[in-house]
Design a protein that fits this description.
With 490 residues, the protein is mainly β. The chain has three helices and 27 strands.
């Protein structure tokens, strides 16, 4: 209903409605956006269902003066993956778990100041650093939403963050061997903004983070009561602010960038805590009942990273490479395995009473392990006739690790994208594929998009996931799904 109403409203407007002169000088306001409806149907009936999603996005820009411009974007959504939404509201910068529907998300709201040899941006903004496709080791400034991460585009997943960005343009040196078009960007992130995560009964909550209803410990069956909750974000002070620097330029026919980042990791990480309680029960097998209260919650960790990227055009193809060294990143274990291997007790039956619970000790392995790592990737894209082809390999190398993690010490992933248009570009067929070599998992995402008329298209797609359940993507192997999306661009 939301999408249909907005599509009808904007469809009735002429193209002139998208620009509005301002009363001073030759300044104007410009706007564009999109309205879409998406319906997902899961193949496995045992997985959580999600409601149809209606989403509308509006971007507005305004030239306030010859040097000052405002850029803003908001997205309104209703339905989709949230199953526990009990109210409408606007997303905030304080919580990972936010069950809102309908919801409003202020994605960008910034002022851009341009003066000779200097650009300044202040406000809520998104960054696109790095040169690889989808997975960029140096793109560390924006956390993401993980509600429907295989269907949402990269820009849709990103969360706008309050930031101050300053870019200075360096004059070219007289030497022909020196790099050209150098620009130095510094970014200050005053707030720690958490990633957004689905609730435990939603479709894209990680299966390996789900706790079994009961487990055994020392021969005793322990019933588990689980609560996925928010955690306090780090204090909003200068000590917890983040900073990043990028030097970009052009040398010997190649675009290059150098990066440094010091701040809180924007990637998702979860931890777990547990308490256990016992009471005497002569009717049970061991004469005792034990229950456990388990909390799963997000954790935030500061990292430092240094990296570089390179892009070079040769023989009609664009080749890219990117890498980063990351200090102190959190890598996940299976929370399910952490709970199943915990130690509860010892429990002394002589100390127990049938009408009073006694708290007993619990020993847990940590759900995350802090390690240094090297993230790198390389790829290229080219047109072969009318077919666009993109190939990419990414690898995560976890350094000095001797623990069992959801990623191997050398986690290698291969990506493929094929895209071709038909019917005078009215029909586009696309295939995205991902294969993880160590975890032995794969994702295939074929889809076709047809332009019904000017500004309106329909997409049909299917997502197939296979792999070992003890891997980052293989754990979602029961989440195969088909979907249809209707979109209106204005």
């Amino acid at each position: 209903m939301l999408a249909a109403t907005a599509a009808g409203l904007f469809g009735a407007l002429s193209a002139d409605a998208y620009t509005l002169p301002l009363p001073w000088g030759d300044r104007r306001i410009d706007a564009d956006g999109r309205v879409e409806i998406r319906h997902v149907e899961g193949v496995d009936r045992g997985t959580a269902r999600q409601r149809p999603l209606g989403r509308a996005r509006l971007r507005v820009g305004a030239d306030l003066t010859s040097r000052l411009r405002f850029e803003g974007a908001v997205t309104g959504s209703a339905g989709g993956t949230p199953r526990n939404a009990d109210r409408a509201g606007a997303f905030d910068f304080d919580h990972s778990l936010q069950d809102l529907s309908p919801s409003l998300d202020v994605e960008e709201a910034r002022l851009d100041l341009t003066v000779p040899n200097l650009d300044v941006s202040a406000g809520i903004q998104k960054f696109a650093w790095g040169k690889l496709d989808e997975t960029q080791p140096n793109d560390l400034l924006n956390p993401e939403k993980y509600y429907d991460f295989l269907l949402d585009d990269e820009d849709e997943r990103k969360i706008g963050v309050p930031a101050l960005a300053v870019t200075g343009y360096v004059p070219d040196l007289p030497s022909s061997a020196a790099p050209r078009d150098l620009k130095l960007t510094g970014v200050w992130l005053p707030l720690v903004v958490p990633f957004r995560f689905p609730d435990e009964d939603e479709r894209w909550y990680p299966p390996l983070a789900r706790v079994p209803e009961s487990t055994r410990s020392g021969g005793v069956v322990v019933s588990n009561h689980v609560d996925f909750r928010n955690a306090e974000v780090p204090d909003r002070d200068l000590e917890n602010s983040g900073a990043a620097v990028r030097l970009a330029g052009y040398a010997s026919g190649a675009d290059f960038s150098l990066y440094y980042f010091d701040g809180f990791d924007t990637g998702p990480a979860l931890d777990v805590a547990a308490r256990a309680f016992a009471r005497r029960n002569p009717e049970s097998g061991r004469g005792v009942d034990v229950r456990s209260e388990i909390e799963v919650f997000p954790v935030f960790d500061r990292i430092r990273a240094a990296g570089a990227d390179l892009a070079y055009a040769v023989f009609g193809a664009t080749l890219r490479a990117e890498g980063a060294w990351v200090q102190g990143r959190l890598f996940p274990r299976s929370i399910r395995d952490v709970i199943e291997s915990r130690e509860v007790g010892p429990v002394d039956p002589a100390m127990l009473r049938p009408d009073v619970e006694l708290e007993v000790p619990v020993r847990l392995m940590p759900a995350t392990v802090e390690r240094d790592a090297i993230e790198w990737g390389a790829g290229g894209d080219a047109l072969y006739g009318d077919t666009f082809v993109l190939l990419q390999v990414n690898q995560t190398v976890v350094l000095h690790n001797h623990e069992s993690l959801l990623v191997s010490d050398r986690e290698t992933r291969f990506g493929l994208t094929l895209r071709r248009s038909f019917l005078a570009d009215g029909l586009e067929a696309e295939l995205e594929g991902l294969y993880g070599m160590q975890g032995v998992y794969g994702v295939a995402h074929p889809r076709v998009t047809y332009d019904l008329m000017d500004g309106i298209d329909v997409r049909l797609g299917f997502v197939a996931i296979e792999g070992h359940e003890q891997s980052l993507l293989g754990q979602y192997r029961e989440n195969d799904e088909g979907y249809v999306r209707i979109r209106y661009l204005f």
